[in-house]
């Protein structure tokens, strides 16, 4: 192939392509756009359009900017070259075909796309070098368009269904509104009827009130008339009586005056008075005979009420007296035993004091610990070993409490809500006893609030509300001092558990399960104490423990019995179980209850390990898989406990609506920090 003098290649041979028009067949001969650049070193260089032919350029006054370089043109070429003939033919064909389309046709977009496809096919056929790449691109676009059209065809019935459903809903709404209007109209009519009835009753009431008023006036008039007649009758009787008396005393002086009165009238009045007197005397005798020994009903009710109250007080006092008597007997027996033990200990102490070395002078620590009052508060009633432990803890805390102020962590959202304070907060230098007291009060208040709300609140939010309610403006100083002192005493199980729950390391149900377990144990021990002496032998104590913990083995029960005997320092004697629940000044339980908690933790870990073994080999688990695993390792597990375990594992209120699969270790980890315990014995392998 030769190159012309102007640098252009001769046109490449290509078949003529025919484009459909309106009754006219257009033939377009492809025009080659291969040009020979004057600056190209190799022949056959393919230049981009517009070509930089010197004969078709118009020099501009200023050089091209970086925009030209961005489009692939060099700064040494200026102006704008004319379009190739083939490009002009394609553009004219495209414009003509688009103009010829019917804009009102429903398939206008498809026909426009067909025109563009034909033009693009012509380009692919002409550029044989890029034909495979362009064909691949075109095929991908065709496949995508076909897929989208298929999706549109599938969605069209849904659109019609949606329109139909919308129409049905509109009809239902209109029917409901129509029915409601009819009901409202009926209710309005009924209301009007009731208003009329009420108005009529009010008129009737007013008429009755008027009648009652008139009747009251008439009754008052009749009553006045009766009173007048009664008074006149009494005056007449009195006058007759006085006249009779005067007649008997002065018969001679008043003879003429008596003769002047009508004797018939006087006799009649005397007869009437005697009849009234007789009738009154009879009635008085009858009343005296019938009601002489009768008590009024009002007095009888008062006496009956007083009798019931006194009887209830007597029963209460009797029950209290019986309880106090039993407690007094127990205390008397306990005092006798303690006295014997005290005498023995005193004798042993005397022997030890003679044979032992002098005791250390703990009073010398008073100045180090902040005064004699502080020393007596910490060391009062403690053994030497306990005093040494307390002294080391106080020295350690004093070393860590050199700061007088704590810097606030700010109020951003990533700071826990109970620590959102700013500025310098004073260190209140709380001791361990203060921490235990505050934590116990927090748990007690939270239990009361949860009982009223019927659901459990978050410990972080409740701690913030508790500090605001208890200490007001000093809440920041108290919470920072409390958290600092908690970090200094994390070796204590009670404080460490509170800190782990507060920092979401373990679930809050662990604390409640421990509290319920210790309460249940004490309740079983009290019920097993049939003699109410507060003492058990070793065998009786073991049976009571077996009743409280039926799933424990003999080895665990023996360990608990040995721990109780060791704590009470009674190897073969009686076990005073109530003393096992005593706390020291720091609120810490004894060795026995510590073993109970440790065994419960070990049993919970074993239960979780059995569940992990049951799910071994599964990378992901569902609700059904976890339910089946629980049923296999614990067949007696009730449905309520199983639902609670599934809620903890999948973090949902309704686990059966949780279709997603979780990695096996995720629910296992969630259950390992919650209150999960065995409900029945482990099934024996077949």
TrEMBL record:
According to the UniProt record, one GO cellular component term is: cytoplasm
Record PANTHER family: TRANSLIN-ASSOCIATED FACTOR X-INTERACTING PROTEIN 1 (PTHR16306:SF0)
Residue spans making up a coiled coil are: 177-218, 314-355
Q: Does the keyword Coiled coil apply?
A: yes
The alphabetical list of record keywords is:
Coiled coil
Q: Domain (Translin-associated factor X-interacting protein 1 N-terminal): give its ranges.
A: 91-202
Q: Please give one Pfam family short name.
A: TSNAXIP1_N
List the residue ranges of the region (Disordered): 1-21
Which lineage? Eukaryota, Metazoa, Chordata, Craniata, Vertebrata
Instruction: Please give the superkingdom of this protein's source.
Output: Eukaryota
Q: What is this protein called?
A: Translin-associated factor X-interacting protein 1
């Amino acid at each position: 192939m030769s190159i012309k003098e102007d640098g252009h290649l001769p046109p490449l041979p290509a078949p003529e392509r025919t484009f459909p028009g309106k009754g006219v067949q257009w033939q377009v001969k492809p025009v080659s756009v291969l040009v020979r650049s004057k600056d190209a070193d190799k022949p056959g260089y393919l230049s981009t359009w517009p070509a930089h032919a010197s004969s078709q350029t118009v020099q501009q006054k200023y050089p091209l900017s970086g925009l030209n370089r961005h489009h692939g043109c060099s700064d040494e070429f200026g102006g704008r070259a004319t379009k190739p003939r083939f490009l002009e033919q394609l553009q004219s064909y495209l414009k003509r075909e688009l103009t010829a389309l019917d804009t009102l046709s429903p398939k206008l977009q498809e026909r426009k796309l067909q025109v563009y496809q034909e033009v693009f096919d012509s380009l692919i056929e002409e550029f044989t070098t890029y034909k495979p790449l362009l064909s691949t691109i075109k095929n991908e676009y065709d496949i995508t368009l076909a897929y989208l059209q298929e999706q549109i065809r599938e969605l069209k019935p849904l659109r019609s269904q949606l329109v139909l459903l919308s129409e049905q809903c509109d009809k239902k709404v209109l029917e409901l509104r129509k029915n409601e209007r009819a009901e409202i109209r009926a209710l309005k009519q009924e209301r009007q009827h009731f208003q009329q009835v009420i108005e009529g009753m009010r008129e009737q009431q007013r008429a009755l009130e008027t009648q009652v008023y008139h009747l009251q006036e008439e009754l008052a008039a009749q009553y006045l008339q009766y009173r007048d007649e009664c008074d006149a009758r009494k005056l007449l009787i009195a006058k007759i009586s006085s006249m009779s008396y005067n007649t008997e005393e002065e018969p001679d002086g008043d003879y003429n005056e008596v003769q002047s009165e009508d004797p018939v009238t006087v006799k009649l009045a005397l007869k009437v008075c005697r009849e009234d007197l007789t009738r009154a005397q009879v009635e008085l005798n009858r009343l005296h005979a019938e009601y002489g020994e009768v008590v009024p009903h009002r007095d009888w009710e008062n006496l009956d009420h007083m009798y019931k109250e006194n009887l209830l007080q007597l029963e209460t006092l009797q029950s209290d007296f019986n309880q106090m008597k039993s407690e007094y007997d127990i205390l008397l027996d306990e005092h006798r035993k303690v006295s014997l033990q005290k005498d023995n200990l005193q004798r042993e102490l005397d022997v030890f004091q003679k044979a032992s070395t002098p005791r250390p002078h703990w009073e010398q620590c008073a100045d180090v610990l902040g005064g004699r009052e502080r020393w007596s508060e910490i060391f009062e009633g403690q053994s030497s070993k306990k005093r040494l432990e307390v002294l080391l803890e106080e020295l350690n805390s004093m070393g860590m409490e050199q700061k007088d102020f704590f810097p606030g962590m700010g109020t951003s959202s990533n700071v826990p809500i109970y620590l959102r304070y700013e500025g310098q907060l004073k260190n209140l230098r709380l001791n361990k006893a203060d921490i235990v007291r505050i934590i116990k009060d927090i748990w007690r208040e939270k239990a009361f609030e949860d009982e009223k709300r019927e659901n459990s609140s978050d410990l972080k939010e409740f701690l913030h509300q508790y500090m605001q309610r208890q200490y007001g403006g000093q809440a920041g100083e108290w919470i920072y001092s409390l958290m600092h002192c908690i970090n200094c005493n994390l070796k204590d199980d009670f404080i460490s558990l509170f800190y782990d729950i507060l920092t979401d390391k373990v679930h809050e149900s662990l604390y409640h399960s421990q509290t319920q377990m210790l309460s249940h144990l004490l309740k079983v021990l009290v019920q097993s104490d049939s003699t109410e002496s507060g003492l058990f032998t070793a065998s009786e104590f073991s049976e009571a423990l077996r009743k409280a913990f039926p799933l424990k083995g003999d080895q665990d029960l023996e360990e608990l019995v040995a721990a109780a005997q060791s704590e009470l320092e009674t190897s073969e004697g009686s076990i005073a179980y109530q003393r096992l629940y005593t706390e020291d000044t720091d609120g810490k339980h004894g060795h026995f209850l510590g073993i109970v908690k440790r065994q419960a933790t070990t049993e919970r870990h074993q239960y979780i390990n059995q569940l992990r073994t049951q799910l071994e080999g599964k990378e992901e688990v569902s609700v059904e898989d976890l339910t089946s695993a629980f049923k296999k390792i614990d067949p007696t597990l009730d449905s309520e406990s199983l639902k609670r375990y599934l809620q903890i594992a999948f973090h949902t209120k309704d686990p059966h609506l949780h279709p997603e699969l979780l990695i096996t270790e995720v629910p296992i980890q969630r259950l390992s920090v919650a209150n999960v315990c065995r409900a029945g014995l482990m099934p024996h392998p077949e």
